[in-house]
C-alpha cells in the first residue's frame, strides 16, 4: 500500500491491495477520552489508485464490421478512430461473440459471455446459467473494481446488460449500470433506441431532454453529457482518475443521423458503384494500409444469398443507395461526436495519461434488415419483409423520426470485408472479427503501429487492470470471485513485443447453435446453416453434432476462405473434443439453435404467473419486458372513467409506438382502440358518438384464434400471429367489431413503454394525436385480463402428428 500525507489527517490517501472489495475499514488510530479537548481525531485515508494509473476511455460502437471505418480501409470517414490509431496502435485480430449484449457482458466482466449469463440477448434469455442474462455476483465488473480502487466510473449510451425483466422502476437495480459499479449512467436500456426520442435514463430515472427540441439527437446529446461529466469531475477533483465507458447506439438500427451528416455523405457519392465494387475497393484499401496481409483472398460474391448489384432494378439500386448513405452518415456522425469527447480529454490536459480503447463494433455488421432492408426494424423481428415498392414511400424521410430503418444485407456483407457473413454468425469471421485502436501517449510510443496477435473482447478487463496496477479481487461483498477468463494484451503496447506470439491461445465461439473453436491459429467452425434474417423456421435440434464442420489455418488464411477439413480429419476430431471441453467449462450447454422462439418464451418478469392487472393511477415508462404481454392471446381491457362537462380526450392505455403497438384512447370524445401493425397497417375500432359527461365503462375484448406460445414447446410457430376478432363496447353495448386477419407474433416496439393516462415518446397513430395526449377524463380503474391459449390433449396430438409428418417429408 502507498500512503500519502499524514496518516489520520483529512488529506491522507492510500492504495489498497485489492484482494477484498470494498476494502476493510481501517482500525481507528486516534485517541478517544471523555472529552473532545483531550481526544485526538483520526480520519481513514481516502482510497486512490496507484500513482501512475491512467484515466480510461473505453469506446465501443454497435453493429459495425471490419470494413466499416476508414481506419481499417473503409470508405466511411472515421477521423476520431484514425486519430487514436495514428497516436497509438491498430489491432486487426480482436474478436467479439457475434451478438451485442453478449459481447458487452464479456467486455465489462473479462469473462466469456456464457460465463457471464449472456449466451444470447436478455430478450431471448432462458432458465439456464449461461443464458439467463444475469451477471452473477461472483463476476464483478471492471466498473466495480475500479470504483472501489478510487476511480470515478461512468457509463454512457447503450445498456443491453440489464435483464429485460428487471428494467422497470420496481427494479431491482443491482443489474443496472449504477448497481454494477458505474456511479453515473446516461443512456438507454435495451438493444436499440430511437435516437430522436430515446428511452433515456440518467442513473435510474427516465429523462426527456429532447422534448420541444425537434433537432435534438442522442448521438450529440450523449457526447454533450459526457463532456459535461468529465469537466465536472475534473473541476471538482482534478487528481481523481476516471473510467468512462462510451457506447453509442450507432450503428445499430434504427440508423438516425442528422440531416447535416446525410448531406455530407451523399455529396461524396461513395456508394453509387454498388456493393460488389465497394467490397473490392475496401479490400484494396485494406491491403494498401497493411491492415490485412497482401495475400489475403476475397471470396466470390454469394449470389445464392444476395444478388449482384448489376442484377438489381433501378428502383432497388436507388433505395439501397439511400439506405447505405444514411447508415454511413450515422457511422461518421457518431465518430465525430466521439472525437469531441476525446478532444475534451485533451482540453483538460489529460490526454497523455489516458488509455483510450476504441473498439469498432460489438459484432459484425448487422444483416437483420434482410436482403431488402426495411423502413422498420420491428418488422424484421415480426418476420415481415417489406417489398421495395412499399419501402419507397419512406424514401424521402429515410433515417428521420418517421423510420426505424435498416439497410440491405448486401451492404452488410461488403462492410465485413475481407470476411464473410454477419452479426449472429459466430462461426464466421464476418460475425466475430472486430478491429480496435488504442492510444496511451505516456506509455505507447510505437505510434501508428499494427498489432496482429489473436485477442478477444474478454481481454480488455485484464488489460485495464494491468495498465492501472490494480489486481482482480478475490472477494467482492463477501462473495468469492470467479477467475478472470481473458488475457491482458498490455504486452503489445511496447514496440519490442510487436511481433510476439499471442498470449491468448484458445477461444470458443457460440451463438444460437453456430459455433467455432480457435486454437493457436487453427479455427474449427460450423458451416453457416442460417442467415440472420431466417429466424422463424424450425431450429437445429442437435446443434453440437448436426453440423458440417470446416477447418481453417488462419496463420496462412487471414480471411477464412480455404476450408481444409478434408485434409485434416484428425485435427477436426481433436478440435471438436476441445470445443466440448470449453463449452462445459464456460456454461455453453445446453446448446439451443432457436432464435425467434426464445423471444416469446416466458421468463421471470413482474407479470409472470399473472392473468389480471388492475391500475387506478396514471403511470408511464413500464418497459415491454415488464408489462402485460397481449400477443398470441385473448384479452379484455376495461376502463372505468368519469367524463367531465365539456367532454374528454386523451390516452387511456398504450404500449409500443409509431413502429408497432396499440392504443386505447378518446378522440374528440369518441372511444378508440387501435392496433398499429409495424407501421404498415392500422386497424381501428371507434365508437360512433362522443361520450356524454359522467361515468362510463369502456371495454375492448379480443378473441384470439390460435394456440399461442403453447406451440413453442413443439418448436412449432404456427400458433403465433394468428387472426382474431376485437369488439369495442361502451357501457356494455357493442359499438364496433373488426376481425384482424393476422396479429403481431413476436414483439411490439422494444424501446417504447406501457403507458397509462398519457403517451411517452412516439404515438401509435400520428394521424389522430401527438404525445403526450394526456387523458382529461378521470380514470377510476383500468383492468386487463389475459387469457393465454392452453393446449388440449387433442391439440397436443395434432402437433405431434404434424411434427412426425414434417420429419418424414425431410
Automatic annotation (TrEMBL):
**Which residue intervals define the domain Sulfatase N-terminal in the entry?**
54-470
Polar residues: compositionally biased ranges: 10-20
Q: Name one GO molecular function term.
A: metal ion binding
Q: Which UniProt keywords apply?
A: Calcium, Hydrolase, Metal-binding
Coiled-coil residues: none
From the UniProt entry, list the residue stretches annotated as the region Disordered.
1-20
State if Calcium is listed as a keyword: yes
Q: What is the lineage of its organism?
A: Bacteria, Pseudomonadati, Pseudomonadota, Gammaproteobacteria, Methylococcales
What is the name of this protein?
A: Arylsulfatase
Query: Could you say which protein family the record assigns here?
Result: Belongs to the sulfatase family.
Amino acid at each position: 500500500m502507498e500512503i500519502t500525507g499524514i496518516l489520520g489527517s483529512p488529506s491522507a490517501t492510500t492504495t489498497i491491495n485489492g484482494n477484498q472489495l470494498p476494502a476493510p475499514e481501517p482500525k481507528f488510530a486516534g485517541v478517544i477520552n471523555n472529552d473532545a479537548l483531550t481526544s485526538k481525531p483520526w480520519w481513514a485515508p481516502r482510497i486512490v489508485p496507484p500513482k501512475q494509473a491512467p484515466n480510461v476511455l473505453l469506446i465501443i460502437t454497435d453493429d459495425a464490421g471490419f470494413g466499416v471505418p476508414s481506419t481499417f480501409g473503409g470508405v466511411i470517414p472515421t477521423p476520431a478512430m484514425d486519430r487514436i490509431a495514428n497516436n497509438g496502435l491498430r489491432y486487426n485480430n480482436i474478436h467479439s461473440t457475434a451478438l451485442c449484449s453478449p459481447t458487452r457482458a464479456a467486455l465489462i466482466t473479462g469473462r466469456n459471455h456464457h460465463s457471464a449469463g449472456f449466451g444470447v440477448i436478455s430478450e431471448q434469455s432462458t432458465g439456464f446459467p449461461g443464458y439467463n442474462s444475469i451477471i452473477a455476483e461472483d463476476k464483478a465488473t471492471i466498473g466495480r473494481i475500479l470504483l472501489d480502487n478510487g476511480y470515478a466510473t461512468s457509463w454512457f449510451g447503450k445498456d443491453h446488460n440489464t435483464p429485460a425483466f428487471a428494467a422497470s422502476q420496481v427494479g431491482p437495480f443491482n443489474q443496472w449500470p449504477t448497481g454494477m459499479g458505474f456511479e453515473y449512467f446516461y443512456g438507454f436500456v435495451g438493444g436499440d433506441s430511437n435516437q430522436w426520442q430515446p428511452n433515456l435514463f440518467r442513473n435510474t430515472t427516465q429523462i426527456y431532454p429532447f422534448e420541444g427540441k425537434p433537432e435534438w439527437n442522442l448521438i450529440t446529446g450523449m457526447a454533450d453529457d459526457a463532456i459535461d461529466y468529465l469537466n465536472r469531475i475534473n473541476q471538482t477533483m482534478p487528481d481523481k482518475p476516471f473510467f468512462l465507458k462510451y457506447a453509442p447506439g450507432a450503428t445499430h438500427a434504427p440508423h438516425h443521423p442528422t440531416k447535416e451528416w446525410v448531406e455530407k455523405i451523399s455529396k461524396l457519392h461513395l456508394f453509387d458503384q454498388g456493393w460488389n465494387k465497394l467490397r473490392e475497393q475496401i479490400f484494396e484499401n485494406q491491403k494498401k494500409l497493411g491492415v490485412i496481409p497482401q495475400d489475403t483472398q476475397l471470396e466470390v460474391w454469394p449470389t445464392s444469398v444476395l444478388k449482384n448489384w448489376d442484377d438489381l432494378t433501378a428502383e432497388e439500386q436507388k433505395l439501397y443507395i439511400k439506405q447505405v448513405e444514411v447508415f454511413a452518415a450515422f457511422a461518421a456522425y457518431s465518430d465525430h461526436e466521439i472525437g469531441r469527447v476525446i478532444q475534451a480529454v485533451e482540453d483538460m490536459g489529460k490526454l497523455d495519461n489516458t488509455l483510450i480503447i476504441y473498439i469498432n463494433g460489438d459484432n459484425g455488421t448487422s444483416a437483420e434488415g434482410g436482403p431488402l432492408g426495411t423502413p422498420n426494424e420491428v418488422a424484421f423481428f415480426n418476420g415481415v419483409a417489406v417489398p421495395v415498392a412499399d419501402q419507397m414511400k419512406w424514401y424521402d424521410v429515410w433515417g428521420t423520426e418517421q423510420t426505424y430503418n435498416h439497410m440491405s444485407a448486401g451492404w452488410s456483407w461488403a462492410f465485413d470485408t475481407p470476411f464473410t457473413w454477419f452479426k449472429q454468425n459466430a462461426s464466421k469471421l464476418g460475425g466475430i472479427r472486430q478491429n480496435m485502436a488504442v492510444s496511451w501517449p505516456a506509455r505507447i510510443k510505437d505510434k501508428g503501429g499494427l498489432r496482429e496477435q489473436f485477442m478477444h473482447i474478454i481481454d480488455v478487463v485484464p488489460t485495464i487492470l494491468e495498465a492501472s496496477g490494480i489486481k482482480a479481487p478475490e472477494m467482492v461483498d463477501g462473495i468469492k470471485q470467479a477467475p478472470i477468463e481473458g488475457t491482458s494484451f498490455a504486452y503489445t503496447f511496447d514496440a519490442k513485443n510487436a511481433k510476439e506470439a499471442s498470449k491468448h491461445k484458445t477461444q470458443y465461439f457460440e451463438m444460437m447453435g453456430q459455433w467455432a473453436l480457435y486454437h493457436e491459429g487453427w479455427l474449427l467452425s460450423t458451416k453457416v446453416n442460417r442467415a440472420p434474417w431466417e429466424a422463424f423456421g424450425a431450429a437445429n435440434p442437435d446443434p453440437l453434432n448436426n453440423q458440417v464442420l470446416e477447418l481453417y489455418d488462419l496463420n496462412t488464411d487471414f480471411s477464412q476462405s480455404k476450408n481444409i477439413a478434408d485434409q485434416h480429419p484428425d485435427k477436426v476430431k481433436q478440435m471438436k473434443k476441445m470445443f466440448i471441453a470449453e463449452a462445459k467449462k464456460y456454461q455453453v450447454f445446453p446448446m439451443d439453435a432457436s432464435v425467434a422462439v426464445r423471444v416469446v418464451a416466458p421468463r421471470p418478469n413482474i407479470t409472470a404467473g399473472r392473468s389480471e392487472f388492475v391500475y387506478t393511477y396514471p403511470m408511464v415508462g413500464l418497459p415491454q419486458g415488464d408489462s402485460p404481454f397481449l400477443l398470441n392471446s385473448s384479452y379484455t381491457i376495461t376502463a372505468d372513467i368519469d367524463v367531465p362537462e365539456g367532454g374528454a380526450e386523451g390516452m387511456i392505455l398504450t404500449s409500443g409506438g409509431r413502429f408497432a403497438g396499440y392504443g386505447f384512447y378518446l378522440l374528440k370524445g369518441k372511444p378508440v382502440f387501435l392496433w398499429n401493425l409495424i407501421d404498415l397497417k392500422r386497424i381501428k375500432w371507434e365508437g360512433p358518438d362522443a361520450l356524454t359527461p359522467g361515468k362510463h365503462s369502456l371495454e375492448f375484448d379480443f378473441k384470439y384464434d390460435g394456440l399461442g406460445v403453447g406451440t413453442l414447446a413443439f418448436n412449432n410457430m404456427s400458433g403465433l400471429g394468428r387472426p382474431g376478432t376485437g369488439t369495442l363496447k361502451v357501457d356494455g353495448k357493442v359499438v364496433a367489431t373488426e376481425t384482424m386477419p393476422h396479429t403481431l407474433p413476436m414483439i411490439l416496439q422494444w424501446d417504447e413503454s406501457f403507458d397509462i393516462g398519457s403517451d411517452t415518446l412516439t404515438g401509435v397513430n400520428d394521424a389522430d394525436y401527438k404525445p403526450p395526449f394526456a387523458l382529461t377524463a378521470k380514470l377510476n380503474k383500468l383492468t386487463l385480463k389475459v387469457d393465454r391459449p392452453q393446449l388440449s390433449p387433442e391439440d397436443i396430438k395434432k402437433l405431434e402428428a404434424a411434427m412426425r409428418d414434417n420429419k418424414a417429408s425431410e
